[in-house]
User: Fold these one by one.
Assistant:
Number 1:
Amino acid sequence: MDGKIRNWLSSQPIRIKVLVFGIIMSIIPLLLTSYYYYSNVKADLENRILANQKLVLQNLSSEIELEFNQTFRQLQMATTLKQQGKQQSIFYDLLQQNESFEEIVITDDAGYIQKKVSRYNLNIPLQNEKWFSDSFWSDFQSKSKTFGKVEFNQFGQPIVKVMIPFIEDGKQKGIGAIIQLQKIIGKISSLRQEDSSYLYLLDKDGKVIAHQDYSQLWKKHPSPADRDVIGVQTKINDLGWTLVMEQPASTAYEPINHMFRNGLYVAAIATIIVSLISVYAGLYFTTPIIYLEKGMNNLKTGKKPAPILLNRQDELGKLAEAFNEMSRELQEKSLRLEQEKERLSVVVAGIEAGLALVTKDYKVTWMNPLLQIWLHNQDVHLPCFTLLGGKKEACEDCPITCPELDANGNSIMKTKGENGEERIFNHRVFPLNHAMNGEGEFLIVIEDITEQKQMEEKMIQTDKLTALGLMASSFAHEVNNPLATINVFAEDLIDRLEQKDTELDDEEMALYLAKIKENTERCKRITSNLLNFSRKSNWTVTHIDVNETITNSIHLVESTLKNKQIKLTTELPYDLPVLLGDSLKMMQVIVNLINNAIDAMEKAGQLMITAKVEHNSVIIQVIDDGCGIAPEVLSKIFDPFYTTKPVGKGTGLGLSVCYGIIEEFGGTIQIDSIEASGTTVTVRIPIRKS
Amino acid sequence: MMKTKWYFFILIIIIVSVLLNIYINHREDSPTKIGVIMMGNSRVEKLTGLKKGIRELGYKEDAIEFDVKNAMDNEKTLQEKIDELIKEKPALIVTMGGVETLALKEKMEEQKTKIPVVFAGVAAPKEIGLIKDYRSPGGLFTGINNYHTSLAGKRLELLHQLVPSAKRFFVLYDKKIKVSVLSLENTIDAAKSLDLPIIPVNVSDPKFTEFLSENLQKNDSLLMVPGFRMESLTEKIANIIIENKIPAMGVYGNEVEEGILASYGSSFEEQGYQAARYVSRILQGNSPADLPVELPDSIHFFINTKVKDELAIELNSEITNLAEFIKPVREGAK
């Protein structure tokens, strides 16, 4: 029950709760106060009623007792006077004195009437008229005064006989009287009582001999136990009668019940008034809330809510204002969001890159259409490393695997295109800080760099060929010298053989051949170096011996250095670590840098090439004391096709290609130059474990 | 629309509050109207007794309103007054004598009116048909049996004992009044028991005074029996007895005051006083059918000492112990 009420109350709107609260708060104090006064006043009222009833009964019972005592005294007096011979006048005297006497008799010792004086009838006794009933006669024999039972005379009037004995001529005679009770009964039955109180008189047998309700007359004692009454009773001595006064509780408590009813009427009116006030208060407080609720619902369903206009400055007024403002802002932001969304959709759909959202568990939750095309609409439920990289395990350098990594997992992926051609993709991973858990906490951006890579390769090759072209005369000169030597030794040997020089022994012949072989190998080394350098190759990762690579590079430019009388010094520690990467590309970088240095030095310059390990990187420096680079040029020096060299001397791709290759190694290239003093180019390549 | 509803709601609240207030405050008891019908001024004493009794029973004066109709000894007027009274629908009606009661009963039966009636002193109510039984009247009528019919025999005995010299007893009765005839019959019975000679005289006979004047002798006496015409003839009878020097016994104290030697009966005032008890019982919810008819609380034996002296007769001293002696109020009653 309690739960039902609570459920009902909790389901009601606030205005109903305010109404219920108001009613309870008004009724409960009123009822408690009323009940307190009702209880106290009721007890007090009952005491007063009982006290009043006792007083009435005491007066009445005293009156009745006095009446009968007087009756007996008068009869007693009559016996005394009778003996003095004044019988007739005494009897009339008694009738005159006591209006209740209906008849006075003298009975003989056998109980027969000897003499009678009646107020209503003739004074002639009947023949052998007996005056006693058996029980009355019996009492009369033993008692000094005797009461009969209440009986009725010929006119239906209640009477009682009383008698006292006296001795005459040695015999016990009696003087008695018939007492009319109608006056006593009449008084009891007609005495006006307040508030429906009533009196009744019971004889010694418990029979009602007087009652204000005449329908109760002559019946046995009405049972007060069956009724809710307040009453007292008093016994009338000698007669054995009981006088009772009662009042029904319903009427006894009527004044306070009436007061209580009035209290209830007042409570009812108070409740109605409080209800009105509560309804008003409920509406006053809840109407703004209802408006707010409607506004919120409109907002929820995307409708534009009308502004809530409340002419009040309290908290609710301020809340409504805040709501209006919030609603405006929300609409504005929604509009902006829509715009952003539209833009984003356009970007996502139009961007030449694949986008995918990936969870922490490598699960791809979304892909843009381009990526779906690239991936041939493969099953997106595969983990990203399988779907995108074709791997079985997650990538180690991926920010998803290692969130502590600062890098964005920039890596190159290669896949086969629709026609079986190789496609190269650049793949980057960006963590999303505000993504919902499980909806893709990382954004993967995949760019198709196949064309870019191809262009880069072409640039590198172009650059390389350009370098080779520039170095061609040096190469020819370099090859020419051993060839001339071979030629000299070969011709001298031929001549001596033709002349059949006897001094040409085997030893000497071997010396000739050795010289020829030595120069041949030198040529071979030069050409193979040249071939190796000029070879077009894709990025091939191998273990690079930095010293060897630098040395091979120097070999390529050795003749140029000699021609220009440039003094080369190298500082190449023997314990340099092995690097991972494409050694040819690194050689191209070093050749480029040396060529630039040679170009910067007109003649007889100083060139220094050093290599060392610092901060887990191999640092290669090419230092010249050439003309240096102007500061305004320095910022543009890595731009493709930018050159300061005269036409035919450079393509403007050299440093740009170097920059691309070093970036491929994950390293950096830095140029520090002071104009007219020289330039230092520093290449840093991180040492990676294989 | 909303505002109209509110106005309507508030209007209902105000109306309910006003009605409740009226209901709470409207608790004053309006006085109970009691109708009183009397034949003439001779019954005014009963009304006095009635009011006294009502007052002594604890009723405040403003609690009871008496609507008194006096027929001024005119039988036609009596009928009209009864009609008026019935129309006014009092809570109950008190009748001041047998004639009024019988006339009222007839009217109520005619008009089928059900109003409780208390008769403040009627002789032989059972015999004249007002009630069924003394203990349970069983109808709308109850009240005081003044016993004056039954006391007719007792009066004869008392007159005989009071004036032992009286040898013949002229009994004055009204042949047209039933009560009077019944009283005569009762007297005749008593005369037989007492062995006394009686001579009935019908007062409705206009020549009854002449009859008395012609027949009254020394040692004769007059005995008056109840009858409302008798009450108006008191003065005439008083003159007769003085003229003829004969003792007479009446019913009421006022007759003694007017020149009758003695009377034996209940007084009008006491009958009215006693009737107040019935009024109270009925107002307290009792039905008249349940209220036993009562005898008078007291019977008075009055003797006019002046008349006694004028008649120059000896009275039995033993019997005078019962009597109350009064003097006439009217000196000219000779």
Number 2:
Amino acid sequence: MPGSNGAGSPSSDLELGSPGHSRRSLLKGAATVGVAGIATAALAGAALPAAASSRSAALTHNAGPAPANESEQIVVHVRDIATGEMDVFRGTTCARVNDTQLAARLSRAAR
Amino acid sequence: MSSHREAPEISKDPVADSTDVYAFVSPDKPGTVTLIANYVPLQGPAGGPNFFEFGDDVLYEIHIDTQGHAEPDISYQFRFQTQLPDPDTFLYNTAPITSLTSPAWNRRQTYSVTRTDSSGRHELGNGLICPPCNIGPLSTPNYAAALAEPAVHQLSDGSTVFAGQRAEGFYVDLGSIFDLLDLRPFQNLQLYAKALGFKAAPGVNTPKFLNVHSIALQVPISRVTAKGRPVIGVWTTASRQRARVYDTDGGHFDSGPFTQVSRLANPLVNEVIIPLGKKDFWNTQQPAHDKQFAAYFAHPEVAALLPALYPGVFPHLAALDAAQTPRTDIEAILLTGIPKGIIAGFTNFTGPVQADLLRLNTSIPPAAKPSIFGLLGGDAAGFPNGRRVFDDVVSIELRALAGVTVPLVDKSFTPDAAAGLLTDGLTPADLGTPYLDSFPYLGVPYDGYDHPAA
């Protein structure tokens, strides 16, 4: 049915540093540089310094209450692997993130 | 058309494609304004088994600028939700749908209405049901009384709302206009038609017998105006979430903030003012940023095409074009509103910010004897003072672009005689079904059994 969402991605799919990480979880989404991924655990805590992420008010459109929750799926659009510029989509928000290491790991994972 | 399939990208996304916006002081309830935003263009009434509906994944909005800054001071948001009680049948309905609670109706939509203004977000209604599409006498008997009228709902703030299928009320001869701006009543003068020996002929209403989906609101004037500022600017937008992932089971997952994919205020702006290479971009932009498009209003392409395609018919317009005279009349009508003092007793000026808004002076009462030519016909209650469902916006804009409104800003200019006669040859009499006298004003949708007729 249009608009129906799939099941949430378990964080166990997202051991990006592990050779056993799930490619399925990394193939969702679209990326102009050929890299996309669902990355919940990797985007939490130390993987992304707080200073490296920003949530632009201009990127959000007030579409009503849709608070992010921990089980919600995330789509990452790696805009530029070299600069590590990524858009992280969750719920009705988008955060612009710059993290060259994570971008490089996602790139390797998507091969 | 007014804005049906007017840009390359949105033409591939009908449920998010805004087609017409109407804003007028309600003739039968003059203390209210009626705002209508139409979507899902060019519906063949027989288009089953998946009949037309709004997008559950689209954020529909009607915005109102009350302060003259081209920003939304009030926004009404509409979100739809589809229910499929029985997924194991291919049928839209398994028996006649005799009421909005009929168990025979198998694909139905409900919606919520939320108003955002300076005091915050306010849900005005939820679980409001849309009527079914008008399928035919067996499936949707007594459509108007049993299905459409009960789908008019009262909101918690006293406003009235309807969302669902309606008969297309916009009349236009698309077939001729998009055939090198041929206007059938004048095609004996058109460059290529004349060469082929075409004679003048009546217009053909292309969307006759087609339907559309309307979101209609009727709101007390005091709820949509600021004190001492009777002129409002109205527009609609449709937005989608920025990221979509298609699952392999036929579903999809959307994420991220909503981004605007369609917008509409004045009719025909993105259609014929904005060039093809900018149309998709236009749909993403906010009205407050329309200054970037002002050159297309100052030098409209149609004004240059008319003398070229109708040789010798528009010499004064041709001279105006040749002198590269900016069309400040068109800029005023479409981008700022008409300031006080230009037309006796009339203004719909919102300020110097150039923005495509449908500007309505709510202090002007409905006309006792309305003219389909609106302001050009001496009727200040009609387009471009807002837009009523019956206004002949094609002829009004053709005439304005042909130079009829230049004297508003240059009294020394004499419009060509033909300019004031331009039309695609259609009137509301060319509709297949009449408008309604009351909310939601657009006619009962055509049913699929009878349209097209055998």
Number 3:
Amino acid sequence: MADESEKTYASNFLDKHPALREAMARSKRLDELEKKVALPKDDESEEQLYIVRGDTVGDEDELYVDALARGSNPETKDALARELFLETDPALQALIIDELKK
Amino acid sequence: MPDDTTSTSPSAAAPAAQDMLSSLKSSLKKITIEDGDVAEELYRVEGDLLLDEDQLEIYAQQREALEKERSLQKERAALGAGDVAPQEGRSSLVGVTSNGKLVRWKPGLVLTYCVLKNTFSSTERYEKAVAGMKQATWAWENTCGITFQHKSELDNSNGTANPGTLFTVREIDAGGQFIAAAFFPNDPKNRRRVLIDPSYFDQNLSFDPVGVLRHELGHVLGFRHEHIRSQAPPQCPDETMADTLDLTQYDPQSVMHYFCGNVGSRTLAITDIDRIGSQKLYGMPFSSFNYVE
């Protein structure tokens, strides 16, 4: 668990918008994405990390927020990210576009 | 990294860029590539880049912007202004920000690393990683004011834990989902690792392996992907733009640009525009000064 000073943009963003964090908890497709991009762990105590933004590493919050940003583009080739975006309600979709793609 | 083709049609260039385009067209060597009955004329730039007409137009716009940037830098220098102040309002090298401020390593901090030998599946791979890191760190040290140090005495440490360097370099089998991966300066400390997938060692790797590490070290220094800019081809992968700041104009040949939408470079070399952007964050390379005690 990262301390407050090390909190990522994604975690802050989700904390600021609880409805989005709830959408994340309800998501039917996030597990699928996690399985796809999970980084192998050296031992059980290690934090589970994922490949985000192509070639950097992040936690579940960063994975979700990155996927939402990508999925907000109707032309994206990332079908799973698009599905994650479309799982959220229209008000949250507007928020994602406004805050993550500005 | 996606390897798409594009039908990019650049918008009409500004007059100055048109002059640059005309000048380039008249001075660059043309090469004809024949494919069956179809022949395409390409312009050769910077030694090893072949550009078609559309790509050359984009290149001319960048060159013109770069000339302007240099001219402004000279003016600022003449006025006694520093080299590191970021210029807002110009479009991109893209820096990471936190609370509205650019993120960089503390001045004077030496970025130490070790290459964890036990994580590599062969000595040959370990040695290739060591050599690649040496060249890639050297390239950044000669680009901006940053120092890396390989603590080779820690390379034989057991396990995967960091034995006391700022970051580690290791092989990890990510199933080819990336060639290599890295971290940003403001990431939690336990993520400070440059990860190298076995695909990096593939004989048929389509990217310059040292270039791949130059790109990853760009992340380590605090640079985001160049292709997330709105000017990049639409085929390039999207990312959130939150917490970023443009340091220079868009540079499709940037070391931080994926090869996507027929833009980018498989050599992943540090360009003049990358140099300008990185110096805004870290200043000039230390080797460019005569130090007086």
Number 4:
Amino acid sequence: MKLSIIIGLLLSGIVLMVSCQSDDQLEYVRYYSTGRVLYQSKCQNCHGAKGEGLQSLIPPLTDSTYLKTNKIVLACSIKYGLKGKLDISQKTFDGQMPATEITSVELAEVLTYINNSFDNNLGVVTTQMVNEGLNKCN
Amino acid sequence: MRKILIVAAFILLCGACKFNGEKKNLPIYGNRQPVAKTVNGKMVTDTIYQTIPAFKFVNQYGDSISNKTLDGNIYVADFFFTTCPSICPVMHRNMLDVYNTFKNTADFKIISHTIDPQHDSVPILKKYADKLGVTGNTWWFVQGKKEDIYKLSESYLVRKPQEDVKQLFIHDGSFLLIDKQKRVRGAYDGTDPKQVSQLIADIKTLQADPEQVAKK
């Protein structure tokens, strides 16, 4: 009887520890999976299932350096659209991305998906980061 | 669409009996009309198939492209516009596979009709082709009078494009396979890579069809 209580306590302790540790991980998984659905419905037509873009018409989402340096700017671009010249993956793009009606949470989700797919490995983008970024949009 | 499918199924069924054991033939879509004519003093019944009517457009190089230009060619047709944010990028991502497979085939063409000729001028079509990486004379992006393009789309069994409230165009993403007699031999969903693979296979089947080989 005593033994089972001890084991029970130990187990719940482990569960507690694990759940504390993986809070970030849980958030990441939640953002990533919702982000994937958003990506498929709003981005994939143009940017492709593998983030490959389309020749010189639509930029790819595989340039980790670009994504890393423009993580927050991208929230503005997705929400308000983008126009003009853009250098990505050694190519110059001069097209237009339409604005999208999208919430900050959704932006965080879709950016988390993009930043951690297509061989990118840049970690979670939180809603807080997105909100801070949106305040600085041009 | 259902009618087309029923007709297609019927043709396939007939084909199954008639050409049992022979190489697969592609169906011929559209209306058909039996005509009686006299050959060597005997009455025979012939069939007139629906064909793509005459047209005249301009391609991305500023060259005139008419039904005559396409004589002796098997071709694939679709309808798009360069500023289309929805299905066009998917269609042309998939069409690039068709282009890359057949770009060195002399009697094969791809004709993409813009349904927004007011915006898609010849220089804009050229720029679009360049950016897509399309060169040479295999894949033509054509523009012309809007009414002509919309009217012609009906002969390709494509849903007629409409302008919705946002002044954006609704059109379907079909790729149409046309033979040397200008008959529709296949319709594929250009947004589905699997159907586009089928299109590539069907083009090869059509190219090997003795009737197509004989037709210049």
